[in-house]
Amino acid sequence: MINFRRCPIIKELDINEAIRDREVRLIDTDGEQLGVVAGRKALEMAIERKLDLVKIAPQAKPPVCKIMDYGKYKFEQSKKEKEAKKKQKVINVKEVRLSLNIEQHDLNVKANRAISFLSKGDKVKVTLRFKGREMGYTKLGYDVMNKFNELISEVSTIEKKPKLEGRSMTMFLAPKNA
């Protein structure tokens, strides 16, 4: 009786005894094609070399299997995924809320807060809520948004112009260098 090495099936790749096909197209460790071989014989060849038989293309006729060190393959794949994650840049969207009758000093404070967000590379969502009868003064809301934009125009660009959606007006700002 042959002693099989057992490895769990990960990422839908069948390995070793999980491959139950009668015939498989076999690829050697160095990428050389060995042709169509019986499934049992391919598994025995992999065990002789103390490696794993991995089904890399199950949809092909016959399925394509490769002799490789599955643990090393898995490690290299996880390493590539980590490298890809390192190079990704996460952009957060921070929110600054304004009101229709905001004083100049309060507007400056909110503008400074938005500038700090933008300098860190985050995008800023500026929201202005209309309460009660303020809905009749939407033009003043556009004025407040434009005034706010003028205060931070050196470090930001408008990604999405002020738009009235229900009872709130929103505007999106992005850092100028991005």
Distance between the termini: 64 Å
How many individual domains? 2
Number of strands: 8
Helix content: 25-40%
Q: Figure out the total of helices.
A: 4
Explain what the structure shows:
Helix content is about 35%, strand content about 30%. It has a four-stranded mixed β-sheet. The protein has a four-stranded mixed β-sheet with strand order 5-6-8-7, covered by helices on one side. The chain folds into two domains: about 15-85, Roll (Ubiquitin-like (UB roll)); about 95-175, Translation Initiation Factor IF3 (2-Layer Sandwich), CATH 3.30.110.10. The longest helix has 18 residues, at about 70-85. With about 180 residues, the protein is α/β, with parallel strands linked by helices.
Features:
8 strands; 4 helices; Ubiquitin-like (UB roll); alpha/beta; Translation Initiation Factor IF3; 33% helix
Task: Provide a short characterization of the protein structure.
With 178 residues, this protein is an alpha/beta fold. The protein has 4 helices and 8 strands, in the order ββαββαβαβαββ. It folds into 2 domains: 16-85, Translation initiation factor 3 (IF-3), N-terminal domain (Ubiquitin-like (UB roll), Roll), CATH 3.10.20.80; 93-175, Translation initiation factor 3 (IF-3), C-terminal domain (Translation Initiation Factor IF3, 2-Layer Sandwich).
Indicate the topology.
Blueprint: E1 23-27, E2 33-38, H1 39-48, E3 52-57, E4 64-68, H2 70-87, E5 93-99, H3 104-119, E6 123-129, H4 138-151, E7 156-165, E8 168-175
Parallel strand pairs: 1-4, 5-6
Antiparallel strand pairs: 1-2, 3-4, 6-8, 7-8
